[in-house]
Amino acid sequence: MTTELFPVPYGVAPHDPLLSLPKCSLHDHLDGGLRPQTIVELADEIGHDLPAADADGLRAWFQESCDSGDLVRYLAPFEHTTAVMQTSGGLQRVAREWVLDQVADGVVYAEARWAPEQHTADGLTLDETVEAVQAGLDDGIAAAALEGKTIMARQIVTAMRHADRSEEIARLALRHRDNGVAGFDIAGAEAGFPPSRHQAAFDLLHRENFPVTIHAGEAAGPESIWEALQLCHAQRIGHGVRLLEDSEISDADPKLGRLSAWVLDQQVPLELCPSSNLQTGAATSIADHPINWLKSRGFNITVNPDNRLMSGTSMTREMRRLVDEAGWDTDDLMWVSVNALESSFLDFDSRLGLLDDIVLPGYERVS
């Protein structure tokens, strides 16, 4: 069993000064961030065949498989991570390690996004899956505290957009809103499965004053973002990288479309995931990623890893790429970190406490 409590994130230099910056991660899939050695060990326990026999080979296979330029193909390797997350023990271990890996990455607040309906193949009920994940998150937070580390973590319960269980999953989220579930999402193949397909679930959550973020504007265009915001009451947009397709972008005379202008004026938070977007074909390079133009215009952008295993990334690596490949500086990183915390589904008093006690002082020490 893996024994290192806080392993340095993959692809990050141990002494990178960005590693110690306090971060807030809003878009990080639980089943996309497993430790490769954990997958190997859990797969061996249940007799699940993997495409590689050891952790290093498995990590390389995941990243190569996800470098497809297509969202549907990017999602296919998740069959192996979800396969080892079908028991309470497996879910609890994965969630615990997910928290510890956040701590190692300098993250002080994180939302674990995952779909309970994908974890009942071995007989767990939906409620049991949520309880197992929460137990793992709590274990990770407690283990970090024993080492003098502060982190807060919440669940984002997700329904699969190609299925017909969104209202059932919405009710599941509401049942556990006082036990760690902070929000609701839909995920999966975006094209052909618009947010409005799940209108009943979103209307229910809206009536119950429950936070919503929706994957939109990644594999589908601005119309997906419009539905998420105007029909389905989303408070945040997952990805949103294709938002600018409704605008005329030029250095001389940029003209925002109606949707982009509304998102800017309302300061709708955008959960941008630069490295992941390169893999799915939603962007061509970090230097040319829409996040840079959005930042220059004052959109409410946040930086996120999406799937740390599949993209070989972390919050620190995303920040390092933006610094090295797009010319960002510490002030930019502080701005998106504050944006993320203020846009989180954490209660106001806790947000304010993290901001005043940890996030702002952490950036002031390096400024």
TrEMBL record:
EC number from the UniProt entry: 3.5.4.4
GO biological process: adenosine catabolic process; hypoxanthine salvage; inosine biosynthetic process; nucleotide metabolic process
InterPro entries registered for this protein in UniProt: A_deaminase_dom (IPR001365), Ado/ade_deaminase (IPR006330), Metal_Hydrolase (IPR032466)
Pfam family, one: A_deaminase
Cellular component GO terms held in the UniProt record: cytosol
GO MF, one example: adenosine deaminase activity
Domain of life: Bacteria
TM stretches of this protein: none
Required cofactor names: Zn(2+)
Residue ranges of domain Adenosine deaminase in the record: 22-358
Alphabetical keyword list: Hydrolase, Metal-binding, Nucleotide metabolism, Zinc
Database matches in NCBIfam families: aden_deam, PRK09358.1-2
Similarity comment: Belongs to the metallo-dependent hydrolases superfamily. Adenosine and AMP deaminases family.
Protein name: adenosine deaminase
